[in-house]
């Protein structure tokens, strides 16, 4: 027979007080409880290994202690680093971090929001860029209004077209800076590997790439812009297309590091040496970027620090520190061996 579940009544019996007194100790009530009685309750809780019913507590306090994190691909180091930062900062506080992997699917993202709304999540983080889809935007506008009416804090990483707290990473600026460096190194025949077509982050990064070309008097050649999906395999596929125009290209700017690493791997596999025959650069400075062959020149967006800053911001706002401001992060150019200076 299974062991009986320990209840607040069992704690009260052992501590020789009422269940109401136990509840006051557990919830740090303003109602006075003597030090001696509080110590008896805490000793009883420890002896019985009692865990308060968080669902019941949530019903009383109108707080669920749930923080939802919606990511596009948890296998991507970008999201893994961010979630690690969020979770490690929040760890030790009494919050449950629920992670939803949506694969950039409109249906999956809406489903995740519905679940979090139904469970009255205290906060929701949209960790990926906005999905550019009219159906999605219309439904999300309505859902976010409902969430805000139930006091759920919604946070977006990069701009989202909703009335929420948006954290601006400077995606367009990052691509502009890295492309400027490629041009400074003498390259003018530059290919670009794009991100997922329906993702606003992709739009911003391509915008930065084009801005750099235009200000350096280099015509934007759409024939040198290749499809990608922010993945290693997407970079490999793009590289196979780039090879067909290898004589027209001296450098490749990839929309993120995973794409750049995949492109470099495929180019080397096809006996096209990086950077001797073609240079490759990326964005993000993922942990694996410095271990590639050759090590990847990139822009560092400190994703783990971004995660800890998100965690710190949420804890402050959820504890009614309404004046707390989000700590911005700064991008940084990381020079390695995948970019060659032309003579």
UniProtKB/TrEMBL annotation:
UniProt entry keywords in alphabetical sequence: DNA-binding, Transcription, Transcription regulation
UniProt entry tagged with the keyword Transcription: yes
Taxonomic classification: Bacteria, Bacillati, Bacillota, Clostridia, Halanaerobiales
GO molecular function, one term: DNA-binding transcription factor activity
Source domain of life: Bacteria
Residue ranges of domain HTH lacI-type in the record: 6-61
Entry annotated with the keyword Magnesium: no
PROSITE patterns for the chain: HTH_LACI_2
Gene3D superfamilies registered for this protein in UniProt: 3.40.50.2300, lambda repressor-like DNA-binding domains (1.10.260.40)
Protein name: LacI family transcriptional regulator
């Amino acid at each position: 027979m299974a062991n009986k579940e320990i209840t607040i009544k069992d704690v009260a019996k052992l501590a020789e007080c009422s269940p109401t007194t136990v509840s006051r100790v557990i919830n740090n009530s303003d109602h006075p409880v003597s030090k001696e009685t509080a110590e008896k309750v805490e000793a009883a809780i420890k002896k019985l290994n009692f865990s308060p019913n968080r669902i019941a507590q949530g019903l009383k306090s109108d707080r669920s202690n749930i923080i939802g994190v919606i990511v596009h691909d948890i296998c991507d180091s970008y999201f893994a680093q961010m979630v690690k930062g969020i979770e490690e900062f929040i760890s030790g506080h009494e919050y449950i971090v629920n992670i939803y992997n949506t694969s950039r699917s409109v249906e999956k993202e809406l489903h995740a929001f519905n679940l979090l709304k139904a469970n009255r999540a205290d906060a929701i983080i949209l960790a990926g860029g906005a999905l550019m889809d009219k159906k999605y935007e219309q439904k999300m506008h309505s859902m976010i209004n409902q969430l805000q009416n139930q006091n759920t804090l919604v946070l977006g990483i990069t701009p989202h077209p909703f009335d929420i707290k948006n954290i601006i990473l400077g995606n367009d600026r990052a691509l502009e800076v890295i492309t400027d460096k490629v041009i400074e190194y003498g390259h003018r025949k530059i290919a670009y590997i794009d991100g997922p077509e329906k993702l606003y982050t992709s739009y911003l990064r391509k915008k930065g790439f084009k801005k750099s070309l235009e200000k350096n008097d280099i015509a934007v050649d759409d024939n040198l812009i290749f499809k990608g999906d922010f993945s290693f395999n997407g970079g490999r596929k793009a590289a196979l297309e780039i090879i067909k125009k290898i004589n027209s290209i001296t450098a490749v700017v990839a929309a993120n590091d995973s794409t750049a690493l995949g492109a470099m791997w495929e180019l080397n596999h096809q006996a096209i040496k990086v950077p001797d025959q073609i240079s490759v650069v990326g964005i993000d400075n993922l942990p694996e970027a410095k271990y590639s062959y050759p090590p990847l020149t990139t822009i560092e967006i400190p994703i783990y620090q971004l995660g800890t800053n998100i965690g710190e911001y949420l804890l402050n706002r959820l504890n009614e520190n309404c004046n707390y401001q989000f700590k911005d992060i700064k991008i940084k150019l990381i020079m390695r061996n995948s970019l060659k200076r032309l003579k």
